[in-house]
Amino acid sequence: MSSLQLSYQKPRNLLSEINITGSKSESNRLLILQALFPQLKINNCSKSDDSEVMKEALQKSKGSIDIHHAGTAMRFLTAFFAVKEEAEVILTGSERMQQRPIGILVDALRILGADIQYVKEEGFPPLRINGKTILKSEVEIDANVSSQYISALLLIAPSLQNGLTINLKGKTTSKPYLQMTVDLLSQIGVKAKFHANSIWVATAQKIDTQTITVESDWSSASYFYSIVALSSQLSVKLISYKAESLQGDSALVTIYKKLGVQTEFMAAENSIILSKSNKTLSNNSLLLDLSDTPDIAQTIAVTCFGLGLSCKLLGLHTLKIKETDRLIALKTELEKLGASVSVTEETLQLKASETTKNFQNTAIDTYSDHRMAMAFAPLAICDRIVINEAEVVSKSFPDFWKSIQEVGIFSEIK
Predict the structure, then answer these.
(1) Which residues does the record give as 3-phosphoshikimate binding sites (predicted)?
(2) Domain locations in the chain as residue ranges
(3) At 410, is the secondary structure helix, strand, or coil?
(4) Per the annotation, does 23 bind a ligand?
(5) 357 is in an annotated binding site
(6) 120 known member of a binding site
(7) Which CATH number is 24-213 given?
């Protein structure tokens, strides 16, 4: 598969039922905790490439380990191998991964006593890691760059002989992801507390035998919110979702209410039903601070374009260091479709468009970024569109192209 041409056919069943794989964010955290505490069992683990790469890497303790494009795996495994006694690994990844900074995490681990060396460029993978016992129990780290650096430290904290206190410098970004990590630690029986600008985690020799069922991925649900928003009367039922979610991207419920999508929680079935409502923005403009939920920014921007709305999205500084520079990629691809877009280091502004929604099979480049492919796919409801490098969706949602057929978006290899 290279490029897919997408087209829309109104489905016979206006209420489609979709099973989405378990949350990648929850799964990857639990996989690290399972490696530390084998008493932990995981149900509904993510089938994403990132989680599969994590599983494979955790079986090794020697030699070269290639995590490809998996940014979460790079951060979490750096900390894991640093405290795994007798581990001797070179942790590497794709060309893009070797351009994504990791110095803040490495510096924090070195302060704690870790033995980590850069193989090539200072501050970037690949890393040579020799695991050892860590005795220090307090570290300070910049909190305004990537929450994954901090979560990586939190996940290894229970394995440290004296636990760990992390002092956060600056404004904390993507705070819900840190709260998710703390909540999962507490859920398995590890004492942890997130207070103001510090997080404390106690040491733990073992935990009780238990099974955790991973909630389905809210980031992946965003594409179905977009599809319903752009449709005239579609409804979609998504399986294994709950109102009290650990995932920050559950903010979709509130955000998409402004974009004409109603969410109904079916508590008895652990599912949600998304349906089209008649409510629209009174001023045709959406202003959002997405510093806590940057992974849904691409979806929201594309939805607003498809609806002919203006939007200004703030707090997007972390998108510069993802699989691609997502802000520049969004600007480039939306402008292909006739949009007027401006970006800064942390904002995206889209002007309301009077486009005829006639894309004429315009090809969207995805820059090896799964979220670019999936964010633009819902526009097929407006007109035929082509997605290049369509296979990149496997990074987080392997069944994406099959799943969207259920709501009438069909694809054929171009």
Answers:
(1) 24-25, 29, 146-148, 174, 295, 322
(2) 3-14+245-256+283-413, 24-213
(3) strand
(4) no
(5) no
(6) no
(7) 3.65.10.10
> Coil, strand, or helix at residue 378?
helix
What is the β-pairing status of strands 88-92 and 62-66? Answer: parallel
Q: Among 363, 36, 60, 39, which Cα is nearest to 203's?
A: 36
Closest CA to 317 of 341, 333, 350, 294: 294
Any idea which residue has 């590890």 for tokens? Answer: 190
User: Residue 381 and residue 371: Cα distance in Å, rounded?
Assistant: 18
Q: Is 326 annotated as a binding residue?
A: yes
Rounded-to-integer distance, Cα 365 and Cα 382, Å: 18
Q: Encode pLDDT of 90-113 as tens digits.
A: 999 999 999 999 999 999 999 999
Catalytic pick among 295, 365, 369, 383: 295
CA distance 203 to 355: 58
Please tell me whether 384 is known to bind a ligand: no
C-alpha distances (whole Å) from 163 to each of 3, 45, 200, 214, 279 are 49, 27, 8, 26, 50
Instruction: Classify strands 261-266 and 285-289 as parallel, antiparallel or unpaired.
Output: unpaired
Contact 96, 368 (CB under 8 A): yes
Q: What's the CATH number for 3-14+245-256+283-413?
A: 3.65.10.10
Q: What is the pTM of this model?
A: 0.89
Is-catalytic flag, 369?
A: no
Q: Write the single-letter amino acid at 7.
A: S
- pLDDT single digits (tens) 351-377: 987 665 778 899 999 999 999 999 999
Helix (H) or strand (E) holding 57: helix 49-57
- Residue 376 identity (one-letter amino acid): F
Q: Which residue bears the tokens 């993507």?
A: 174
- Which pLDDT belongs to residue 399? 95
Amino acid 355: pLDDT:
61
Q: Which amino acid is at 112?
A: L
Instruction: Tell me the C-alpha distance between 51 and 241, whole Å.
Output: 20
Q: Judge whether 25 is annotated as a binding position.
A: yes
340 annotated as a binding-site residue:
no
Strand partners, 195: 198
Name the stretches of the chain with pLDDT < 70.
1, 282, 354-356
